[in-house]
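Key result, reporting period 2: structure in, sequence out.
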C-alpha cells in the first residue's frame, strides 16, 4: 500500500480518484444515519442537531464531488454493489485500521466519527491512496488538479458538459453551498468547502467559516470538533482552540433517550419472511432507490433531487420503525442493514 504519492498524473487517474471521493463521502452516510435515527430528538436535541447537520453536509460534499468529476468529463457512479460493502469495512481506498460500523449513538459511535473526521497535521503529506485522513486524500486531489491544469491547460482538464453541474437551486444544504465547477478556481473552492467543513480551516482552526444552521448567532464548528463537543459534553467558545478544547456551555445528554440498535445488523440474521427481515428489505429497497435517484441527478437530471429528498424522508420513518422492533436477543432492537439490492430484484 502506497502511503504518499504517486501523484495523480493523468486525467483518467484524476477521474478515478474523484469517483473514490464520491464513494468516500457516501461511505460516511449510513453510519451517521444509524446514530441519528437511534436518538430521541426531544431527549437528545443537541446531539440530533449535530449529527443531522453533519449528514446534510456530507450530502453536500457528495454533490461537490460529483460536480468535480463531471467537470473533468467523468460519470458519477452511486447505484452499484461496491458502494454498499458488508459492515464493518474501511473507508474506500483508505487506512484499513478505521473500520466503519453501523452503531447506535453513544461513546463507540462518537469514537468512530472522530477517527473518520480527524484533521491531518499541518505537516501531513498528500496521500492519494491508503490515506490516513480525509484531508490528506483531498490534498492529493487538489495537487492533481493544479499539476494537470499547469501541464495540459484548463480547457483540456475541465472538458465536461457544464449542464451537468448541480447549482444551489438544486440542493438545499443548510451549511455550505453547492459550487458549480468549470475551472481551476471553482474546483479549488469546491475542495476547500469539503475540507474545511470536515477538519476546520487550515487544519489549525476549530471553525469551518459558516454559521451554525440551528443557532445562527454562533460560528459553525467543523465536523471533527462537533464530535469533540459531544464527547466532552461542552461547546467550543470564541477563543477556544484545538489545544484548549471546548470551554463553553454544557451540552445536555440523556443516554436513556437512545434506541439500543443491534450493531452491524444483517438481513441474514433472520429467516425469510420474518417481520424484521421484511422491514429491513423494504429499507434496503428505498435506500437503493435513493442511490439510483442521486446517480441520475448527478448525471444530467438535477430535477431528480426532489424525488431523492422524498426517498430520504421515507428512509427515516422506515429506520425508526426498525429500531423499535425487538432484535430477538432480549437486549437490542433491530436496525437498517444498508445492503445492496440488484436492480432486477427491487420491489
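The corresponding designed sequence is given below.
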Amino acid at each position: 500500500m502506497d502511503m504518499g504519492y504517486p501523484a495523480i498524473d493523468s486525467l483518467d487517474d484524476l477521474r478515478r480518484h474523484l469517483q473514490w471521493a464520491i464513494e468516500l463521502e457516501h461511505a460516511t452516510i449510513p453510519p451517521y444515519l444509524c446514530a441519528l435515527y437511534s436518538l430521541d430528538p426531544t431527549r437528545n436535541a443537541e446531539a440530533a442537531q449535530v449529527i443531522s447537520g453533519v449528514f446534510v453536509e456530507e450530502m453536500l460534499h457528495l454533490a461537490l464531488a460529483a460536480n468535480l468529476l463531471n467537470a473533468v468529463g467523468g460519470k458519477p457512479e452511486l447505484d452499484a454493489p461496491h458502494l454498499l460493502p458488508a459492515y464493518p469495512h474501511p473507508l474506500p481506498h483508505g487506512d484499513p485500521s478505521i473500520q466503519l460500523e453501523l452503531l447506535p449513538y453513544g461513546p463507540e459511535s462518537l469514537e468512530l466519527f472522530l477517527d473518520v473526521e480527524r484533521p491531518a497535521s499541518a505537516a501531513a503529506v498528500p496521500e492519494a491512496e491508503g490515506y490516513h485522513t480525509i484531508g490528506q486524500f483531498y490534498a492529493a486531489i487538489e495537487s492533481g488538479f493544479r499539476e494537470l491544469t499547469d501541464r495540459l491547460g484548463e480547457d483540456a482538464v475541465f472538458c465536461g458538459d457544464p449542464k451537468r453541474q448541480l447549482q444551489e437551486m438544486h440542493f438545499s444544504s443548510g451549511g455550505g453551498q453547492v459550487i458549480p465547477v468549470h475551472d481551476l478556481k471553482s474546483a479549488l473552492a469546491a475542495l476547500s468547502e469539503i475540507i474545511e467543513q470536515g477538519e476546520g480551516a487550515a487544519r489549525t482552526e476549530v471553525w469551518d467559516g459558516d454559521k451554525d444552521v440551528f443557532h445562527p448567532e454562533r460560528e459553525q464548528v467543523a465536523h471533527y470538533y462537533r464530535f469533540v463537543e459531544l464527547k466532552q459534553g461542552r461547546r467550543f467558545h470564541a477563543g477556544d482552540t484545538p489545544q484548549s478544547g471546548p470551554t463553553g456551555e454544557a451540552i445536555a445528554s440523556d443516554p436513556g433517550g437512545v434506541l439500543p440498535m443491534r450493531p452491524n445488523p444483517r438481513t441474514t440474521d433472520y429467516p425469510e419472511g420474518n417481520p424484521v427481515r421484511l422491514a429491513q428489505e423494504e429499507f434496503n429497497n428505498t435506500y437503493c432507490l435513493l442511490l439510483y435517484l442521486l446517480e441520475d441527478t448527478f448525471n444530467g437530471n438535477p430535477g431528480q433531487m426532489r424525488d431523492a429528498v422524498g426517498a430520504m424522508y421515507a428512509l427515516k420513518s422506515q429506520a425508526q420503525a426498525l429500531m423499535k422492533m425487538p432484535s430477538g436477543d432480549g437486549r437490542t432492537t433491530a436496525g437498517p442493514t444498508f445492503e445492496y439490492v440488484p436492480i432486477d430484484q427491487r420491489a
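The chain has a mean pLDDT of 90. The CA atoms of residues 123 and 324 lie 46 Å apart. This case is discussed further under Risks and Mitigation.
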